[in-house]
Design goal:
The complex is a heterodimer of chains A (138) and B (154). Chain A is mainly alpha-helical and 138 residues long. Among the domains of chain A are: 42-98; 108-138. Chain A is built from five helices and no strands. Chain A is elongated. With 154 residues, chain B is mainly alpha-helical. In chain B, helix 1 (2-19) runs antiparallel to helix 2, helix 2 runs antiparallel to helix 4 and helix 4 runs antiparallel to helix 5. The chains are: A mainly alpha (138), B mainly alpha (154). Chain A binds chain B through residues 27, 30-35, 37-43, 96-97, 99-100, 102, 105-110, 113-114, 116-125, 127-128, and chain B through 13, 17-18, 20-28, 94, 104-106, 108-109, 112-113, 115-117, 119-120, 122-123, 125-127, 129-131, 133.
Amino acid sequence: MAKKIGIIIINLGIVIWGIIGFNHLNYWERSVRIFHVNSEQNFRPGFDPGRSSFDERSSRNRTNRTKSIAQQSADVVQRNRESLRERNFEDRGHGRRGFHSRQKIQLRNVVWFLAVFCLFTVGTIYTDKIRTFRKKEK
Amino acid sequence: MNKIKFILNVSLAAVMLLLMDPRSFYGLGFHEWAGLIIGLFFLLHKALNWTWIKKVTMGFIKRCPRRARLNYVLDVLLLVGMFLMIFSGIAIAKTIDFSWLNLGGSHMFWRVMHTSSSYITLALFGIHLGLHWKWVVQRFNFKKDKKWQKKLAS
């Protein structure tokens, strides 16, 4: 009996760990993302898939007319600086580095993937057990 | 034979998990080479279970039990997932040059395809393991049985 309770507690722990990992990795969102894109989409920042290319071009011309070249380039520089600062901050926060500068082996994300993997495994084992139990009852 | 299968399956699962994050282990180089090699190991896994595949394929509609059919469908989905994962990985590879393949499509499309297919395939791997859990438990029991037999013999 104590062994069974122990197993149930461990499995509950795995399920909770898996759910946390699932949310942490945005698992569902990333899994179904492929069904929302087409092969030619370029993912430009601020790109609106519903907008036609003509609308896009005309709006860009309008913006070009209102802003001077100097103003635009200043904006671009500012935006680039901000994104670079954000990226650096994010990298430091998560302990990340570029692909080539990596020297330490970090398995933090792998642990979350392991959690999700275990969640699916445990979920399937118990679903299967319930199904077998019901079948036996019938 | 079962021991080889077990070791192969455990290493497949471990490498698959390490490959889920390209930055985690030895970087992108490891990710790309190991990704290609895991495809070969996956085919080896299928080759080792060829008798079962042949049997279920022959009697898929009439003679097969429901569970075998479910496993078969899941295996086909896994095969498709693995193919998409490796194919999209080839399209976005950086350390290995596959530009001569001229796969077309935008880089972001292949990237999203690679991420989504790997996430879905990992989930399918988990379900696959769950459905074959009895086999895994049997592998451990087999060891115990052997020890028990040795004890009895001595």
